[in-house]
Design goal:
globular; ten-stranded antiparallel β-sheet; alpha+beta; 3 domains; 739 residues; Beta-galactosidase, Chain A, domain 5; binds (2R,3S,4R,5S)-2-(hydroxymethyl)piperidine-3,4,5-triol; eight-stranded parallel β-barrel; TIM Barrel; Immunoglobulin-like
Amino acid sequence: MPILVKEQQFHLQTAHTSYIFHVMENGELGQLYYGPRLHDQPAFPELTAREEHGAMPAWRLDHPDVQPETLKQEFASLGKGDYRDPAFQITGEDGSRISEFRYQNARVIAGKQRLEDLPATFDDSADDAQTLVITLADAVTGLTLALSYAVFPHQDVIVRSAKFTNHGRATVKLDRALSLQLDLPDANYDLLQFSGSWARERHLIRRRLRSGIQSVGSLRGASSHQQNPFIALARPDTNEDQGAALGLNLVYSGNFLDQVEVDAFGTARVLTGINPTEFGWQLAVGQSFQTPEAVLSYTDRGLNQLSQQMGAFYQQHLVTPRFAQRPRPVLINNWEGTYFNFDEEKLLAIAREAQRLGIEMFVLDDGWFGHRDDDTTSLGDWDVYAAKLPNGIAHLANQIHGLGLQFGLWFEPEMISLDSDLYRAHPDWTVGAPHREMTPGRNQFVLDMANPVVVDYLYDKMSHLIEDARLDYIKWDMNRNITEAFSQTLPANRQEEFAHRYMLGVYRLYARLTAAYPDVLFESCASGGGRFDLGMMAYAPQAWTSDDTDAVERLRIQFGTSYGYPLAMMGAHVSAVPNDQTGRITPLATRAAVAYFGDLGYELDVTACSTAEKAAIKAQVAFYKAHRDLFQQGTFYRLDSPFTGDKNVGSWQVVSADGRRAVAARYQILNQPNPAYNRLYLRGLLPNQRYQVAGDDHVYFGDELMHAGLLVPNLLTTTQGVDASADFSARVFVIAAVD
Ligand code: DGJ
């Protein structure tokens, strides 16, 4: 029984963790414990014991010892003596911002229901999930607050969300409505955040918590390249293999906030949810507001374990089941190969060559619609560009399908160009504030996804193409962030709802398309990694990880991304050199060795490759297919971090579920003269099992490979006889059990 309810005390148990909270004297909820699993008890006096502090507001005259500021609360508001940032705030009809939500009842429900309008976790596979719903009520406004805790025992995950319903007599305004609050009893943690910018997304930053507020977030209308909703708190001595850590992520793609506040007593309040800046919601009588879900997980077995259990959770309980385990096709995308400059003949030549190399899907990227020859026109006009493709998309698709390849198409549904028939017909569909100039981004503007008519238009256009061209795949791009946030469909007092309503419109379009065309694989993209988040993953099982295809940059980007997301979510392509983002020339083998650890694709003009390059690509594709189950579904371990030490080496590994097969790779950015002694310590093998490493006759036991490691020979001791740079090298190790 993962949920134990006793005398207004709630104990959520997973295989290895406990989460305990209770109803306090005033009827509000108090947080008691989150960490390694505890035996259940009728009461936890040590956890509820309080200290009295001087000169602090108390709840009531007869309760001077109950001082909100010193309590660990479960979902706190502001204004009654707790001065930390709150989980929610409500302005009542009279302008008061005080609320007191008191316990009403608790229900335990078998399984986990999806949410109506938001992407959400589920338990279709009857994986023993249970959901606890606590209902609280505020007597003055008549609002109820339902706090939901879905407990997934096998992955040590708890999913939380909150729902406000107005049962009162007047409209109120939600000024903030976060998804999760967690008051931890101490602040002896490092905060791990994943930060960067376009083309260098999700670099790991690790820093100690300090007094005051530390936060990451986005106000871009997208989860963003700059910060990611995934964060972790780890004890200072926690590393990849041991130590306590908790991970937090949000099933949301818009403006978000992840915040940790360390207070005067050294406790840490964690908050996550929709960013309160640029948010406000009029909650009329009879209406509800549902927050996005927050995913919480804990382990005392290190950061690899945290990533593995959260990744396994997403694959089982977030990603659409039809695709979660389905092998993802090796694709070729024409973007870096041709950019806007292509015609049918060129595309077919690439597709034919790709097919000979073993590639399984051809993806036609930007430039196939309207009259689009560069990024200044045609977004919104989702009809074929006849000058480039006079026979139409369906004709091209038929020929691609005739080669035995799947066919995928690029869209950027949420965008509009001024030079488009759509803009000429419906300028009011564009996001923009009255009497203000619209700010361009990549020469384009944003469609008002809060307007249901826009969603209908896009659904009609996209579904027509899906059917006409029998699309197997859609790449859904989004190449700018929102400015002048305003919808012509919303009244003045609802404009603060725009950012969230925009996301609800995006989700509605995704939900309709994925329901109507369940076999179409969606890959989300926002100039690469600008919307790499769980909200997208609920509809699009994989995402284009970054526009940066340089192997060295990708090593860091994929390494950082792997903390929060499994490899099956990461689109990873081999492109041509010099690389278009960095100008760097890396060996083809290194580019592939990085791209193997994700959903492999190629993004170059294969017709321009030499015979030797084509042979290498053919071998790479065959290698990937032979180990695809490991790369896409195996257990992933980070071994050596490119973010620490001399930052010159990175290594990682995937292992099969039974521990009998593994592939590891070690990357060295710059070659070094007379380098230090170097070993690669593998993980996740069976200690008593014998293994062979491909190309090596010796038979190792798993314990030797893990604890004594593999010697990684010096790459070069001299440059004599070398005809290419010895920098940017990669070594791939294939390990298989032998009986
Ligand atoms: C940004 C994407 O990340 C690229 O892969 C490509 O699709 C371009 N947009 C096309 O405009």
